[in-house]
Design goal:
Low-confidence stretches: none
Radius of gyration: 22 Å
Number of helices: 13
Largest sheet: 9 strands, mixed
Order of helices and strands: EHHEEEEHEHEHHEHHHEEEHHEHEH
Helix content: 25-40%
Structural class: alpha+beta
Mean pLDDT: 94
CATH topology of the largest domain: Aminopeptidase
Distance between the termini: 33 Å
Oligomer: single chain
CATH architecture of the largest domain: 3-Layer(aba) Sandwich
Length: about 375
């Protein structure tokens, strides 16, 4: 079967605000994407852009065919790369976007990348290369990209290669826990739970849907701000931009049936809370907070132990923790790993590609995590 080429007219770049009129098509794309990414769905990306792109520097690269949306990725032109003054084009992220793989309809992976790279070649405007961040280094989107890069003979490299905790198992929660942590640790968690019950009755509460979302959000923001993040002014509630982004995105996720909330409560008071985005067949961890006054009971660990039931409860195959690669708790509790990183790709004409090759070789020589 021959691949149907994508014409220039089918791939365009539009102001992100214009996409607010295409939310239905955007949602349809998200639900049939070859790889899910909640952070690039409309209910999350639009509030993010409204909060963090007030100068309107970000645009949306989209692929359409016969009027149907087949792919989407936010992009931005940057004047600096790391410590170097190198202009480049990259997928857009902010500090609370934990995955940067674009939304692409199944079967359109290579078509999108061919059209995207052709577009980048024409739009360099001093840009030396294309840079993809928090990008999955396995799966059909990555495979489609590498196939196109090989066929076009482009110079490219993985300049960061890392892994983070992933939950993906058919085991019951109790069996999975027995495999992932020692008997001593399990016994200690049980002891802490018994001690917690001596303070007052405690319960785990699972919530989905829009009902109670504003109350839950208020509680979460207050809980997070009560600890070290609040003292360091890094809590979501400490900045109006992150505050509004969090509130609007949770409402949007709940309305789209993409959100699950889990709380550990003592006498009705939340002492640990987490939010997760549901993107069948998988899910993505988002935000977690706990009351540091209860630290001796390990409420965060007790909450994560309960969350091991999520795969069966919501009929999903996996959950990406979205945690830092060196996260001690998640790496201990969740045994599987997801590989992702950063990719740099040559664009433009021969001279530009040659110059990029020199920069890439220098970076790769100093980046032991690259390949």
């Amino acid at each position: 079967m021959f691949e149907q080429p994508v014409s220039r007219a089918e791939l365009d770049c539009v102001p992100w605000r214009a996409m607010s009129a295409e939310t239905a098509a955007w949602e349809e794309l998200a639900r049939c994407a070859t790889e899910p990414n909640p952070f690039y769905e409309g209910w999350y990306l639009l509030p993010s852009l409204a909060s963090f792109d007030r100068d309107n520097t970000v645009t949306i690269l989209r692929l359409k065919r016969n009027g149907k949306l087949h792919a989407l990725m936010p992009i931005v032109r940057q004047s600096k790369y790391e410590r170097w003054p190198l202009v480049h084009v990259r997928n857009w992220l902010h500090s609370n976007i934990f995955f940067g793989t674009p939304l692409i309809a199944k079967g359109m992976e290579t078509q999108f990348w061919r059209a995207m790279l052709e577009w980048a070649d024409r739009q360099t405007r001093m840009s030396l290369f294309l840079h993809l961040q928090e990008f999955a280094l396995s799966g059909p989107v990555f495979e489609g990209l590498t196939a196109v890069l090989a066929s076009e003979g482009r110079n490219w490299g993985v300049v960061e290669d890392k892994e983070r905790a992933l939950l993906a198992s058919d085991l019951p929660a109790t069996d999975y826990l027995a495999r992932s942590v020692s008997a001593r640790t399990r016994k200690d968690l049980n002891r802490r739970a018994r001690r917690l019950s001596e303070i007052g009755p405690y319960s785990f509460e699972w919530e989905t849907g829009i009902a109670g979302i504003e109350r839950w959000t208020d509680e979460f923001l207050a809980l997070e701000a009560s600890g070290w993040k609040g003292q360091a002014s890094s809590a979501l509630a400490c900045d109006s931009s992150t505050n509004q982004m969090f509130r609007k995105s949770l409402i949007g996720a709940a309305e789209s049936e993409r959100l699950v909330r889990l709380s550990l409560r003592v006498d009705g008071k939340p002492i640990a809370m987490l939010s997760t985005f549901l993107t069948p067949p998988g899910a993505f961890g988002f935000k977690t907070a706990f009351d540091e006054n209860y630290a001796r009971f390990s409420p965060g660990l007790l909450l994560e132990r309960e969350f091991l039931n999520a795969l069966k409860r919501f009929d999903i195959d996996w959950c990406d923790s979205c945690a830092a690669p060196n996260h001690s708790v998640m790496n201990r509790m969740w045994q599987e790993r997801r590989r992702l990183g950063r990719i740099s790709i040559s664009i433009g004409g021969p001279l530009r590609r040659t110059t990029f090759g020199q920069v890439l070789r220098r970076e790769m020589a100093n980046a032991p995590s690259g390949v």
